[in-house]
Design goal:
Blueprint: H1 2-13, E1 21-22, H2 30-33, E2 38-43, E3 49-55, E4 65-70, E5 74-75, H3 81-89, E6 93-97, H4 119-134, E7 139-145, H5 147-155, E8 164-167, H6 173-181, H7 196-201, E9 207-212, H8 220-229, E10 233-238, H9 245-248, H10 256-267
Length: 269
């Protein structure tokens, strides 16, 4: 039952949307799955309460690295329990949270045509600062997915993670909007979006990008173009589409090879 439910959640993650589709309902909660975790309510500077779950490794496995998980544009943090659980079992401290308007975090008016909101970067920075304070002896980075890579990039203007890991990395907001325009789908970008590419190119943090060769949205060719101007980008390619890396880069269990790539990236920093 436990494994079946977690694999079921992995199917949610692979759904492509690229427009905001928050869900208030948790598909599963760690209590029900008997997964050890900590529950926190964290307040942003603009007085928004964010729900957060932290998954801790055993003392023997602890690699003294915190991963703050910035998920994609749909659902809530419960969709990412498989990732969090396996990463924690591999030695990482994993801090999950819901953006405002998602899950049980405070409500926020959301236009579902929006690609993202700038306020989400405030949310992510709040969690990063929380994680650095609570686990001061750890390196603290972001593991981000799809829209979450935009939020991770923007967050570096206000806080300083030690590194960024991203799958389905958005290198151009204009390209995303154009892609969906061809499918007769309108995407709205928030104020300040025109400076996104410059913000990305100005990042000083080491970046690991996991990119699917069949990803039609955040393409491998776009990531390779970014790497020409940012040689500090480490690129991992896989035979799959948008956000399919965790299931494709697997051998002994879901995400096993995926995690090996992350561990190698962190080792060489």
């Amino acid at each position: 039952m436990y494994k079946t439910l977690l694999i079921f959640l992995l199917l949610f993650v692979s759904v492509q949307t690229f427009a905001l589709k928050p869900s208030k309902k948790y598909e599963a909660i760690p209590d029900t799955l008997k997964i050890p975790f900590e529950k926190n309510d964290i307040l942003t500077l603009d007085k928004v309460n964010l729900k957060s779950w932290t998954f801790l490794p055993t003392n023997e496995a602890d690699n003294h690295t915190t991963l703050v998980l910035a998920y994609a544009d749909a659902g809530n943090m419960s969709w990412w329990l498989l990732h969090a659980t396996i990463l924690a079992q591999s030695g990482f401290t994993v801090v999950m949270f819901d953006y405002r308007g998602f899950g049980e975090s405070d409500g926020f008016a959301i236009d579902t045509k929006m690609l993202y909101y700038n306020e989400f970067a405030t949310d992510l920075c709040t969690i990063i600062k929380f994680a650095k304070t609570k686990y001061p002896n750890n390196k603290t980075g972001i593991i981000s997915f799809s829209m979450g890579t935009v939020i991770a990039t923007l967050a570096t203007q206000y806080c300083q993670p030690d590194f960024i890991i991203g799958e389905g990395y958005v290198t151009s907001l204009v390209a995303i909007k154009f892609y969906y325009a061809k499918k007769s789908k309108e995407i709205i970008l928030p104020k300040g979006s025109e400076s996104y590419e410059k913000t990305l190119k100005d990042l000083k943090q080491p970046i690991l990008i996991i990119s699917g060769k069949k990803d039609e949205v955040t393409t491998l060719s776009a990531v390779k173009k970014l790497k020409t101007v940012k040689p500090q980008v480490t690129l991992v390619e896989f035979e799959g589409g948008h956000m399919e890396g965790f299931s494709v880069l697997a051998k002994d269990y879901p995400g096993s090879v995926y995690i090996e790539k992350i561990e190698h990236f962190l080792k060489i920093q």
